[in-house]
Amino acid sequence: MTLKLHYHPLASFCWKVLIALYEAEIPFEAELVDLGDEDSRARFFALWPIGKMPVLQDAARGRVVPETSIIIEYLDLHHGGAMLPADPEARLEARLWDRLYDAYVHQPMQRAVAARLGREPAAWEAVSAQSSAELAQAYDLIETALDGRTWAAGEAFSIADCAAAPALFYAATVLPVPETKVRLSAYFERLAARPSVARVFAEARPYFHMFPLRDALQPRFRDGA
After folding, report:
1. First and final CA of the chain: distance in angstroms?
2. CA distance linking residue 169 with residue 147, whole number of Å
3. Beta strands of 67-179 (E only): which ranges?
4. CA distances (Å), 61 to each of 56, 58, 64, 78, 175, in order?
5. Which CATH architecture describes the domain 3-78?
6. Does domain 88-222 fall into CATH 1.20.1050.10?
7. How far apart, in whole angstroms, are the C-alpha atoms of residue 69 and residue 163?
8. CA distances from 29 to 5, 71, 99, 145, 180 (A)
9. pLDDT tens sequence across 29-88
10. Structural contact between residues 115 and 86, judged by C-beta atoms closer than 8 angstroms
């Protein structure tokens, strides 16, 4: 098999690429990276010294492709992916929301999770408060932007939705989406029902016990309801 994805099923940024692969039904080999295992870690760092997942390896083209947005564009360019609209303006909008979800939802969430892993209550409280404030602002922005839209960047599922699904899933463990955000809540339900997204959620479920904010996961995901 020409494509191999080096990933972990619990890692949020890995979900972003998995969703794109499943959407386009692109065949690939999944190589689970265990950074706690010396051999697995060494193999991964030999492939990509930066050490951040996921990384796509394309044996047929002799390429190692890092960074989620670039991986998804690479799949569109060379492997029949369809996550970037053909229309230039629509493509720009999809790229914009891909970046907004990564920067304003995903990153604040990850800072809070990292603080929880540090097991220092004072640090967790400070970082959590800051992340929650940033997420609240992002939720406001998204709620407004979703007016009249089915998906993150318009009427077509795109790279922006690949970014949104993991970001929103885990962000809700830091700051649950308020009931007043009816468009955002409905959008997340559409995401969760999408077969590619539901598959990623299901594959991650056996690993949720490792997530430091697991008790804040929605019971239907945590308990398999």
Report:
1. 35
2. 20
3. none
4. 11, 6, 9, 10, 42
5. 3-Layer(aba) Sandwich (3.40)
6. yes
7. 9
8. 6, 15, 27, 36, 42
9. 999 999 999 999 999 999 999 999 999 999 999 999 999 999 999 999 999 999 999 999
10. no
